[in-house]
Predict the 3D structure of the following.
Amino acid sequence: MAIKQLFNYSVETEAPTRKRMVTTMLLVWLAWFFVNLGANGLFYISLHGRPGARPPGEILYFLGVSVVGIVVALHLSKKWNLEMPILPEKRGLGFWIGTTVFLALAVFLGLNAMTEQGMTLADVAQRSPVWIIAPVFVLGPTMLAYTLLWYGFYLPGIRRLLGDSKAATALAIILTAVIYGVYHLASIDELMTLPAMLNEIFITSIIGVAFGTYVVLARSLLVAFLVNWLINWFVFTPVETFHPSAALWPLGYIILAVVWLAYRFLWVEKKQ
């Protein structure tokens, strides 16, 4: 079996009605929300529950990431023939300037987030290489899911619903960002207080606007994925739970591989 067979495949396309699109997008969002809520609930029990109790929150979380965030998002994008620009064919000066500004903004926001949690890059430099790179591995599947779900599925899907005008595109970016922000209500800690909840929604929505704008203008999901990975490294490096033992690093990738193989050869192959 050639490696390219894993990713080089086609699905039967369709032109869904507006009602079908809205209903499906709502169901996908609810699935993403509740799987995150369930996983976060298990994480909360692990931290605050009976000593020694460790429910499998990671397994539920990465199953949700793999199934809803990656497989479902990618399948529906292909089925509805949504635009998923990986990189623009022609990368002119505007692309490089925009990407540089986007990257600089991400680093600035990431450094601020890290500082607010009482850590600086100097502090990070004093840690071991294994400690530093742990969040990189842990965050990989999640960042892929974020990119495909929000900017490869929801953003182009909402743009199709609203139309091709500049105003419609701007509204689609804002709606996608707000939908992305509201999903953070699945965070148990933020649900505890209204100010924390509203602050989380506001900040993530603003970041969502920046990413959506970049994807529309620069036409690059790949860069958005890498920059999102970077900014989340800044955000989560100070969080101790993102530094598990190296033996747990592959967990998300193993679950994703199993889910993808099942989708590719037990679902797609039978449909062809």
